[in-house]
Write a structure and sequence with these properties.
The protein has about 250 residues and is mostly beta strands. It is about 10% helix and about 30% strand. The chain folds into two domains: about 100 residues, Beta Barrel (Thrombin, subunit H); about 100 residues, Thrombin, subunit H. The radius of gyration is 17 Å and the shape is globular. Its main location: secreted.
């Protein structure tokens, strides 16, 4: 971690969100596209979204050693075996070639699975928005994950959580009273000006879904649920062409 990144973190009081505050338990297995990314010892550390039977979309900062990663689809309660889980090892990790760990720009990664998931009543895929599609400020979206349920970021939630958040304009998110210019065109913001609801530690890489489409990937923020600092997400629509080209290159 270099000096520039440390200064940025000190200024914003932030680090990337391995990062749901004030959310609720969804109906079990109603969010069928979400996956838990775990170590081989079954320790959850990031979320992701199934975009095909073979491919998961997540954050580039969730890139761990491929030999110590496992993708779990069809889960709801992490600490209980429910009989719906599908555990699959990754075959290839494809982080965006221009990912910048200092600024979190291009914080997006594809994971190709060794075998396809079985699509059933507990597992399905999520559709991507069209290339460069945008959302109006105030549009309501839903972020989900097994991350921490308190702003201090302690531990993770055993039960999947979800919360609805409004899209915040880039201008507001980039204002001097918020992220002060650190939001790029590859990012989008979602949250309330009063804080209180947000993604948090353990939610990184997870889905922000708007109008049934995967518009965002949990990326970073100023701690969790802080007033004036909405969560920051990778804007998936910017990468539609890159995602398709990457996936098709393996066929």
């Amino acid at each position: 971690m270099d000096l520039l990144y440390l200064l940025l973190c000190i200024f914003l009081g932030t680090l990337p969100m391995n990062r749901i505050i004030d959310g609720y338990d969804p109906v079990p297995h109603s969010i069928k596209y979400i996956v838990s990314i775990q170590t081989r010892l079954r320790q959850h550390f990031c979320g992701g979204s199934l975009i095909t039977k073979y491919w998961v979309l997540t954050a580039a900062h969730c890139n761990k050693r491929i030999d110590n990663m496992m993708v779990v689809a069809g889960d709801h309660t992490l600490r209980i075996y429910e009989g719906t889980e599908q555990e699959i090892f990754p075959q290839v990790l494809v982080p965006h070639p221009e990912f910048n760990s200092q600024t979190n720009n291009n914080d997006i990664m594809l994971i190709k699975l060794q075998v396809p998931v079985w699509l059933n009543n507990f597992v399905s895929i999520i559709i991507l928005p069209r290339q460069d599609a945008t959302l109006a400020p105030g549009s309501m979206c839903r972020v989900s994950g097994w991350g921490s349920i308190n702003p201090e970021g302690d531990g993770i939630s055993s039960i999947l959580q979800t919360v609805k958040l409004p899209i915040v304009s880039s201008e507001q998110c980039n204002s001097s009273t918020s992220y002060n210019g650190y939001i790029t065109k590859h990012m989008l913001c979602a949250g309330y000006s009063t804080g209180g609801k947000d993604a948090c530690k353990g939610d990184s890489g997870g889905p922000l879904v708007c109008d049934g489409l995967l518009y965002g990937v949990v990326s970073w923020g100023n701690e969790c649920a802080m007033p004036g600092y909405p969560g920051v997400y990778t804007a998936v629509s910017i990468y539609r062409s890159w995602i398709e080209n990457t996936v098709f290159s393996f066929y």
